[in-house]
Fold these 2 entries.
Entry 1:
Amino acid sequence: MHLILFGAPGAGKGTQGALLSECLGLPKIATGDILRDAVRDGTELGRQANGYMDAGELVPDPVIMGLVRDALHSPDAVDGAIFDGFPRTQPQAEALDKIFADLGRDLDAVVVIEVPDDRIVERMSGRRTDPETGSVYHLKHNPPPPEIARRLMQRPDDEESTVRRRLAVYREQTEPLISRYQRAAVPIHRINGSRGIEQVQRDILGALGC
Ligand code: AP5
C-alpha cells in the first residue's frame, strides 16, 4: 500500500505516520525527518536545507526528489510506504507519478488530517522531540516519560511567526494537491484531527479498511 498523509504543519502527520507504520508494517518516508537528521549531522544536504527550514519555506524540489527516489528504491519499501510531508508542490507530485510509473506501482489512498489553525499554533508550542529516538511528544496532550524530560528538544521552526509562515505555504502550495488526487480518482479520506491521538488513529484505520 502507498499512502500519502496530508495536513497542515502540526496536524499530526508525524504522530499518525509513526503509528500507521507500526500497525501496517510499512516504512514512513518523512521528508522533514530526513532533512532534520541531515541538519543535525551537518551533511551537505543539511547545509542546503537549513536556511529554508528555519524560515518556514520549502526546500527546493530537486533536493527533495533525490531523497524520495532513494527511499522508494530501498528494499524496505517494496511493499509500499507512508509519505509524511511529501509531496508538497505540483512538481513533486508530478515527479512522484513518474517514479510510480517507472516502478510499476500505484498510489492507493490519500489521508487528509484536518485541524483548525488556532489549535495548530497551540500544538506546535507544546511539541517536544526526543533526539535519541525521534519520538514526538506534547507537553499536555502526549506527555513524555519524566526520565527523558531533560533531553527533549523544541524544533527551531516551531516559533509562532515561522509556524504562521509554514501554514501559509501549506495553504498556497500543498493543499491544492488534494484536488489533483481527487481528479485522478485516488480515494481521499478526510479525518477530524482535533480528536485524541488514539481516536484519530482508529478513524484513519477505519477509513482505510484496516
Ligand atoms: P515537516 O517536518 O514535514 O513539518 P510539517 O509538515 O510542517 O509538519 P510537522 O512535522 O510540523 O507536524 P505534523 O503534522 O507531523 O504534527 P506532529 O505529529 O508532530 O517539514 C519541516 C520543514 O522541512 C518544512 O517547513 C520544509 O522547510 C522542509 N520540508 C519537509 N518536507 C518537504 C518537502 N516535501 N518539500 C519541501 N520542503 C520540505 O504533531 C504536532 C504536535 O501535536 C506534537 O506535539 C504531537 O504530540 C501533538 N499531537 C499530534 N496529534 C495530536 C492530537 N490528535 N491531539 C493532540 N495533540 C496532538
Entry 2:
Amino acid sequence: MGSPFLLIFYAKDSAQAKQLARQAFALVDSLNQVFSDYLPNSSLSQLNATAGSGKYVQPPAPLYEIIHIGLDARRQSRGAFNIAIGPLSIIWREAIRQKTFPSHEKIERAKKYVIERFIHLDALHRTVKLDEGMRLDLGGIAKGYVAEAVIRQLQSENISSALADAGGDIVCSAPPPGSNGWVVGINLPGAENRMLEQTALLHNAAIATSGDQYQFLEHEGKRYAHIIDPRTGYGVTFSRNVTIVANDGTTADWLATACSVLAIRRAKRLASKNKAGLLITQQKKGRLKTYRNRFMKRFLSHQ
Ligand code: AMP
Ligand code: MG
C-alpha cells in the first residue's frame, strides 16, 4: 500500500498475540493483492485491463464492495471524490516523481476519461463494466477499508482493544486497558513533524488525515498536491490538512480525500451529513487557519 502498516492490540499472551498478528498481516497482504494499482496482477489491475472490452466482469467481493462505496462517495461529494481518477493520478504521480510539470493538453485528455466515462455496476450479479480508457485508483479509500477489515477480524477473535494504522488511516476498537481511549496526534500542513497542540481521544472509531506533506510538486511558486481536483485535472494547491473522525475506516478515508478538494463550507456540510468530525488546518498568507465542524469538538482534548 506504499506505507508502513502499524498494529497495536492487547491479547492474553504472546503466543496468541503472535498468531493473531500474523493472521492480521496476512489479511493486509491479501487485500493489497486486491486493491493495489502498483501490482500488475492485482484484482484491480485485472479489472482495469478489461476497460473498453464491453464485458461485465465479476471482481472479488471486497473490490465490488469498495467500488460500490466509491460511487456513493462520488455522488455525495458531487464528483470531488472519484475512484475513476486513475488516468490523472498516473500523470501526477509521474510528475511528482520526476519533478516536471505536466502539459495542459495531457491533463485535458486524461480528464475526459475521468469525468465523461462511466463505471457500470450490475447489482444483481455483482459485476462491473468499465468504459474504454478508464482506470480505477483506490488510493483515496482502500487504506481505511483495510484498517477497518483488520480491526473487524481481531474482534471476531475476541480482541476488543486494538488499533490499526495503515499510514494515516487509523481504525481503533475499545480503549487500551485502564484508559479512556487511544490518543492520536494530528499533523499540521507544510511540515512532516509539526503537530496540532490538541490531540484526539478515540475508541470504536476511525480517524484519517489527508494532506500534502509527503507528496507534492512545486511549480511557479505553487505547491500541487497528489490529491487531484477531478473538475480541473490539477493537483489541489491549498496547503491543507484534513482530518476526519468517522464510525468506520472506509468512510473516514474517502471523506478526508474528498474534503481536501472541496471548498471549506462544502467540506463541512459533507462531513456533517455523514455525522463525521472534520478538522481542517490550512496555510493562508503565512498564517495557519483552523476550521472544524460541530462533530469534531468532542474528540479533541481541551488544552
Ligand atoms: P489520501 O491520502 O487518502 O487522501 O489519498 C490520496 C490518493 O487518492 C492519491 O494518491 C490518489 O491515488 C487518489 N486520489 C487523488 N485525487 C483523488 C480524488 N479527487 N478522488 C479520489 N481519489 C483521489
Ligand atoms: Mg483518503
